[in-house]
Every structure is written in C-alpha cells, then in structure tokens.
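Handout, section B. The chain below has 50 residues.
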Amino acid sequence: MSQAVSELIERSAREKPRVRYAEGLAILDLPSGSRRITTDEVKRLESEEE
C-alpha cells in the first residue's frame, strides 16, 4: 500500500513531499492546495500491483 500512496503523491505534488515520522508512521507534509488522494485511488493502484 505504501508504494501506491507514494506513487499518487509523486504524481500530484509539484515539489517533492517532505516526510517526517511520528510514532513509527510516515507523515507526508504536502504543499497547501495539493490534490487529495482518495481511498478509491489507493485501492485501484493496489489492485494494479497484483
């Protein structure tokens, strides 16, 4: 799943996202106004990986 999310972020963000970690989870700080990533998009990309 993380690969699918990363791919969506790279497609939608104009600049490289900044990643920080909080309690072991990756938190992506995207520029304001970035396109939202939906659960449906993530599921679609996950199904393409199979």
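Note. The CA atoms of residues 20 and 42 lie 21 Å apart. Compare this with the example in section A.
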